Amino acid sequence: MLAEGHLLIEDVPGVGKTKLAKALARSIDCSVRRLQFTPDLLPSDVTGVSVYNQDTRDFEFKPGAVFANLVVGDEINRASPKTQSALLECMEERQVTVDGTTYYLESPFMVVATQNPIEMEGTYPLPEAQRDRFTARVSMGYPDTRAELAMLSGHADHDPLEDLRPVSNAAEVRSVIAAVAGVFVSPAVSSYVVELVAATRRSSELRLGGSPRSSLQLLRSAKAVAALAGREYVLPDDVQQLVGPVLCHRVILTPEAQIARRSANDIVADCLKRVPVPRNAPDATAS
Predict the structure, then answer these.
(1) Do residues 6 and 91 make contact, with C-beta atoms less than 8 angstroms apart?
(2) Residue 196: CB partners within 8 Å, gap ≥ 6?
(3) Is residue 163 part of a domain?
(4) Are 287 and 232 in contact (CB under 8 A)?
(5) Are residues 128 and 206 in the same domain?
């Protein structure tokens, strides 16, 4: 959210994807809407629709679910491609156009979507344009034994989500976003970001590499990480720890790489190793 991006949570069933999205929504005192993506969900359910009002004898706009600070989209790949595409404009431009009229969304605005990559029946893979609009993709993974035991005791008599209280609000988030935007980035680090993304485009194992949008979102995310670490400048380390989450869901492997059982994580990691790390990154006095 501090990077003004969107998050895709992708993992197998039952590991807490939706729970994580709901926990994030409850931690901020702002407007929240949930979208349960199903095959019969319509684009107008997402963006809104113009309805005729008999009293005023005119059409009035009924906002859809995206008119909120935080939109939780559960099982996004269960909606049809037509409905999925309704998110394209709002995720990139923070606006919705219905019947020739443009409506601007609230600020901050973030989409947190979940999907199950295992199940194929009744699902529709996200198109490349949709995936590219998600700033990062993360996976929950299975908890270790200690964490799973703690989960059993924590869910014994109530839902832990009921104990969550907001720690911030929309106004505070807007001010922090402005502060993150002012984090210093040296020309060397900016060049490092561009070279990393360009390396994915040159890779012989990738049919589609990172887009210019991914360069921008990688840098914005690195600024947010630096700010959360209490720094006013971005280090190459900030960029390196975000390369996987920001780039891996955007790239498309060649058939040869798939046959060789290579993964996007492996190939992006190889690209990271090939790009020289800038040695003249700023120190604590750079800002």
Answers:
(1) yes
(2) 210, 218, 239, 243, 247, 271, 272, 275
(3) no
(4) yes
(5) no
Residue 256: CATH number of its domain:
1.10.8.80
User: Which of 205, 9, 15, 38 lies closest to 113 in space, CA to CA?
Assistant: 9
Reference 101, options 70, 60, 67; nearest CA is: 60
State pLDDT tens for residues 62-102.
999 999 999 999 999 999 999 999 999 999 999 999 988 99
Give dist(CA 244, CA 248) in Å, integer: 5
Q: Are residues 79 and 210 in the same domain?
A: no
Same domain, 238 and 136: no
Query: What pLDDT is attached to residue 286?
Result: 46
pTM over the 0.70 mark: yes
Note the pLDDT tens digit of each residue in 152-191: 887 767 787 888 888 888 899 999 999 999 999 999 999 9
Whether residue 14 is predicted with pLDDT greater than 90 in this model: the reply is no
Same-domain pairing of 219 and 253: yes
Consecutive H or E run containing 152: helix 145-154
Which of 181, 207, 231 corresponds to the end of one domain? 181
Tokens 């975000």, residue located: 242
Element at 44 (helix H, strand E): helix 43-47
Contact 43, 82 (CB under 8 A): yes
Give per-residue burial for 200-232: e unless 16+ CB within 10 Å, then b.
beebebbeebbbeebbebbbbbbbbbbbeeebe
Dump pLDDT digits (tens) for 202-227.
999 999 999 999 999 999 999 999 99
Query: Which residue range(s) make up the domain with 117?
Result: 1-142+168-181
Residue with tokens 């009924």: 62
